[in-house]
């Protein structure tokens, strides 16, 4: 009997074979052929090993790339143009010391937006509407208003915003209130602020505390990205 590593001659060429015997519970007939024993060429085994190694390397590369992409900050993305409207009587007269405007601008830029401007207007419905409408006409992707969303007599930002919206986005409104309460920003949780689409622009009203702004921006960014993509598809 020849050894498993025998040499068989085919057309004068010696081919080295490795014999692999498979022993099933019962002999499995295939027509008139007994396939209880199979012969696999050594070259096939080497090729299979090489292919397995290549697959393992590729799997590691894909995993590494996935980790790299997940670690990227949103600032590496270009989410579009934004404009900030601060609704506050003192800010409109240059007396605001809270620096809310620069904070919103910084958070927007960190998220990947290019901020065209930060403007301040008085708590007046006409002025607020004009500022928001200017942003929409200017073609920004996102306009954020800050302030005027409470229950005081001069809190009229939602009323000024309502007439501009073609479609409301109640999911964003609810998310802002819910996350605001969870973050301890009472003014965000009780906000009457609206969110919606005007033309090709997302309009969102935020409360004016620093906690409400920080939490609100963290909530808005992924949602705004999704909405902007959806709008651009049409």
Automatic annotation (TrEMBL):
The entry's keywords: Molybdenum cofactor biosynthesis
Where along the sequence do coiled-coil regions lie? none
Q: What is the superkingdom listed in this entry's lineage? A: Bacteria
Pfam (any one): MoCF_biosynth
The record places domain MoaB/Mog at 83-227
What's a single GO BP term from this record? Mo-molybdopterin cofactor biosynthetic process
Q: Which organism is it from?
A: Williamsia limnetica
| Pathway annotation | Cofactor biosynthesis; molybdopterin biosynthesis
Q: Please identify the protein, giving its name as recorded.
A: Molybdenum cofactor synthesis domain-containing protein
């Amino acid at each position: 009997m020849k050894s498993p590593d025998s040499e068989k001659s085919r057309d004068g060429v010696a081919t080295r074979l490795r014999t692999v015997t498979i022993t099933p519970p019962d002999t499995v007939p295939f027509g008139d052929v007994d396939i209880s024993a199979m012969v696999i060429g050594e070259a096939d085994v080497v090729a299979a090993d090489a292919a397995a190694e290549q697959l393992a390397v590729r799997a590691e590369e894909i995993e590494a790339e996935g980790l790299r992409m997940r670690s990227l900050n949103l600032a590496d993305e270009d989410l579009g143009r934004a404009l900030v409207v601060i609704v506050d009587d003192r800010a409109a007269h240059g007396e605001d010391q809270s620096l809310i405007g620069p904070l919103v601008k910084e958070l927007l830029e960190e998220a990947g937006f290019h901020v065209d401007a930060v403007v301040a207007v008085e708590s007046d419905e006409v002025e607020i509407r004009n500022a928001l409408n200017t942003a929409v006409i200017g073609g920004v992707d996102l306009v954020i208003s800050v302030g005027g969303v409470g229950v005081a007599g001069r809190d009229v930002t939602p009323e000024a915003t309502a007439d501009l919206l073609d479609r409301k986005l109640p999911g964003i409104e609810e998310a802002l209130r819910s996350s605001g309460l969870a973050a301890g920003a009472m003014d965000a949780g009780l906000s009457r602020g609206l969110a919606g689409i005007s033309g090709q622009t997302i309009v969102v009203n935020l409360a004016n505390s620093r906690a409400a702004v920080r939490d609100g921006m963290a909530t808005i960014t992924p949602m705004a990205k999704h909405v902007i993509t959806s709008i651009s598809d049409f």
